[in-house]
Amino acid sequence: MRAIDTNVLVRLITRDDPRQVTMAEEFIQKGAWVSHIALAEATWVLSAVYQRSAPEIGTAVEMLLNHKDLTVQDPHVVSAALEKFRRKFAIGFSDCLLLEIARKAGPRSGHSIATLLNLTVRKSYRSLVPSAAPSVGIFENALRSLRTMNSRPRASRSPSLRLYFSECPLR
Predict the structure, then answer these.
(1) 11-23, pLDDT tens digit by residue?
(2) pLDDT tens digits for 90-148?
């Protein structure tokens, strides 16, 4: 089966360039495979570049899952990630997908996801994975070092952007 990349997915979802949409639709008519990587990248592009809301991104993922010509890698994993994402929009779809991929890999202890989280996202993330507890001690030192190397004036930094390192067990 032929695989499609992020650009093809974005064209199918946004339909912003009629010529490219036609080419993408013609290509997938014979069937096409969507990898987790292409799906995660596409959701990021929809959010960061096209300013799509979380509900719109959820609808786009659902559309891809149900598309007659597309085969999504591990559709049950993607569906579970979509359910998590819809419960907690503050968490990116790709983080939800990573959690579900790790969960599928097996119940061995130690499976977790580590991420840098914005302060406003931390509480939502903790409710998504109940045992999530940010461990900021070591990482705070690294952040201080980065701040001293930062050449931008202090006033240009966003006061709401404080990152936390979280390792979230999947139990």
Answers:
(1) 999 999 999 999 9
(2) 778 998 999 899 888 876 644 555 665 544 344 444 444 444 334 444 444 444 544 55
**Number of alpha carbons in the 13 Å side-chain half-sphere of residue 59:** 7
Short-list 122, 132, 54, CA closest to 93: 54
Q: How far is CA 127 from CA 102, 141, 162, in A?
A: 18, 26, 19
Q: Where are the alpha helices (DSSP H) in the chain?
A: 6-14, 18-28, 36-48, 54-66, 75-87, 93-105, 119-128, 137-149
CATH dotted code for 1-105: 3.40.50
DSSP 123-136: HHHHHHSTT-----
What ranges do the domains of the chain cover?
A: 1-105, 108-171
Closest to 161 in 3D by CA, of 150, 169, 170: 150
Q: Determine contact, residues 12/20, Cβ cutoff 8 Å.
A: no
Helix (H, G, I), strand (E, B) or coil at 34: strand
